[in-house]
Amino acid sequence: MKTKEEVIDVIFKSIEEFSQQNDVQLEAKVDTILFGSQSQLDSMDVVHLLVSIEENINSKFDTSISIADERAMSQKNSPFKTVSTLSEYILLLLNEQG
Amino acid sequence: MEKQIVLITGARKGIGRYLSEYYLSRFYIVIGCSRNNSDLNHENYEHYCLDVCDEVAVKNLFREIQKKFNRLDILINNAGIASMNHSLLTPVSTVKKVIDTNIVGTFIFSREAAKLMQKRKFGRIVNFSTVAVKLNLEGEAIYAASKAAINSLTHIMASELGGFGITVNAIGPTPVKTDLIRNVPADKIDKLLERQAIRRFGEPADVANVIDFFIKPESSFITGQIIYLGGI
Fold first, then answer.
1. In chain B, how many domains are there?
2. Long-range CB contacts (< 8 A, 24+ apart) of B209-216?
3. Which domains does chain A have, with CATH numbers?
4. B27 is in which domain, residue-wise?
5. What residues of chain B lie within 8 A of the CB of A59, using their CB?
6. For B183-200, what is each residue's pLDDT tens digit?
7. Above 0.90 for ipTM, yes or no?
């Protein structure tokens, strides 16, 4: 059974890699805002980061989840909003895949 | 120099099979896929059976590619189906099959390939359009519509993926003698060839020639383009 802490670790690693490769200093904290009007990321940054997180999650857990699935894209409150909400959503997807 | 890795959909027969053998002869590692098994045996060839519009199966394929090679350099979205019929006699089930294979399949493969390619900031995606789009070919309403969608997808994904180091282009073949046109009456084919500047069937080698141009490292500034054969 995967844990939220393991997922958050992968997200933090992805954020660190992303910050190094781009001209963005994003903090690796659970309440860091990733998406929405208060985020310091532009729309392309969000795409880059989410793709990177998805690849790292699938690599670590040997899974094939899609973070940007129909459920995520249709929710009123985006699961991508913060590191914490994203980790909860990813954990849900991982546990559904088994 | 490390071998480049190319993934070709619809690799079992026709143009896809030709391209597989062509790139193997040029020392690429070729990953092919189709709904059925392939009899192509080569140390640098791997075949996977799947339906291109099955998202789960496609994601699993890319998971395998990631584990085995940790990269993908080129994707050739060759898999496609057509169904020549007057629109008034075309069942919706046929419409859905054509859209699923031609549009959904191309989209899923392009999306998953781009996720892998962006890690190395290098990738080449080649889609398949058709002269039927430009010629507004009667009898090919759904096929041409699906490939018009591929044209649009090519343009837009080229813009979206440019920053990732990935180019996206398309080739629009004229009729090539494969199963795709097996059931098209000869007189209709002849009328189509008459509309070409160069009036002959396309050959798989003509297709490979254009793809070679798109995928070569020097073509890093060529993206969002659709090249039609035969002077259409």
1. 1
2. B210/B171, B211/B19, B211/B76, B211/B126, B211/B171, B214/B124, B214/B126, B214/B167, B214/B169, B214/B171, B215/B6, B215/B74, B215/B124, B215/B126
3. 4-97 (1.10.1200)
4. 5-231
5. 66
6. 888 888 899 999 999 999
7. no
